[in-house]
Amino acid sequence: MAYNILVINPGSTSTKIAIFADEEKVMEVGLDHPVSEIEKFKKTIDQLDFRYQVIMNYLKEQNYDIHQLDACVGRGGYLHPIPAGTFTVNDAIVHDLTIALHGDHAANLGALLAKKIADPLGIPAYTVDPTAVDEMQDVARISGMPDITRRSKIHALNIRAVTREYAKSIGKKFNEINAVVAHMGGGCTTAVLRKGKIIDMYNGLDGDGAFAPTRSGGVPVGDLIHLCYSGKYPTEDAMMRHAVGDAGMVAYLGTADMREVNKMIEKGDKKAALIKEAFVYQHSKDIAALAAVLKGDVDVIILTGGIAYGKDITDAIKSYVGWIAPVAVIPGEREMIALAQGALRVLTGEEKAQVYEEEPEDSNY
Ligand SMILES: Nc1ncnc2c1ncn2[C@@H]1O[C@H](COP(=O)(O)OP(=O)(O)O)[C@@H](O)[C@H]1O
Ligand SMILES: CCCC(=O)OP(=O)(O)O
């Protein structure tokens, strides 16, 4: 008998859900949340009951009997640094995500929704490879200012999944691969994996690395300090929003959609062409820098995320970094199957679910 697993992946304006029977996807849908609905909620956590209801209504409409489920699994967000793998959604996870202790993000809702659905059914709720996965080597944590530590914030779920997929395609194991993986989606993060462990990255969120559709990436620190004190952005929230949410491609061009940028370029828009070129250029620099972490011993460079559907973009990145290692393009994301597989490994006993503990007192996170 197959295990029936409900997979929940919340994005900023939609919640993707899927049902897997073991590894076979039997249903998948993206439930869109109109901006008019979402903007009624002040904080992401306030959307929990709304999204829960949308999911339950959809399953009801489909006449899906939730009592068939063996487990629920949700994408996990900003927890304190943890190892990769599958975690049972326990009270400590619920606590940290509910108060957004380590940051606010729609992904925080994934584990909470999984637990909210699983608990009344008496089945387990899991989260797999959340954005808080931290396998960084110590040297990578040094920033240049002792009171600022570089942090791991990463598309760990998709990055690990595509690396696993690539390893399988060449008959190797995940933990045999040295890779540099650029996830280029709504958010962009680039990771370097040594033997399957993400030992360093550009996280794109903390002003680190290439800019993304709505995020600034790294900017000159002196100019940033001047801007913070200029009075133009009077609160920390406003300044944060300026760098993460209103920055990157959308700030230059008014769109976060690379396909729209392509249309602008087709119509002769020179600024759009320059910003797209800069996107490619900055990602290529990040990839090459992370290849240096492996001293050039790179088995593969993987380009993934929605923007990797753009062949002109992946070709352009190849032209910068193709001399380092073979470049594999795995566009889109593998998050739903990766979540299902993570839950399945625990259900079948292949792996033990890890336990998330409250943050240690001496943590400087
Ligand atoms: N064929 C394509 N060519 C270039 N960019 C694309 C293509 N398809 C999607 N994208 C871009 O991918 C980005 C969204 O990536 P995606 O991984 O779907 O984001 P999310 O982080 O929301 O899951 C958008 O900028 C979108 O324009
Ligand atoms: C740090 C990775 C989390 C992230 O940026 O996710 P989205 O691309 O979904 O915003």
From TrEMBL:
Domain of life: Bacteria
CDD domains: ASKHA_NBD_BK
Chief location category: cytoplasm
Protein's UniProt keywords contain Cytoplasm: yes
InterPro entries: Aliphatic_acid_kin_short-chain, Aliphatic_acid_kinase_CS, ATPase_NBD, Butyrate_kin
Molecular function via GO: acetate kinase activity; ATP binding; butyrate kinase activity
Keywords: ATP-binding, Cytoplasm, Kinase, Nucleotide-binding, Transferase
Gene3D superfamilies: 3.30.420.40
Its EC number(s): 2.7.2.7
Subcellular location(s) of the protein: Cytoplasm
HAMAP family according to UniProt: Butyrate_kinase
Protein's recorded name: Probable butyrate kinase
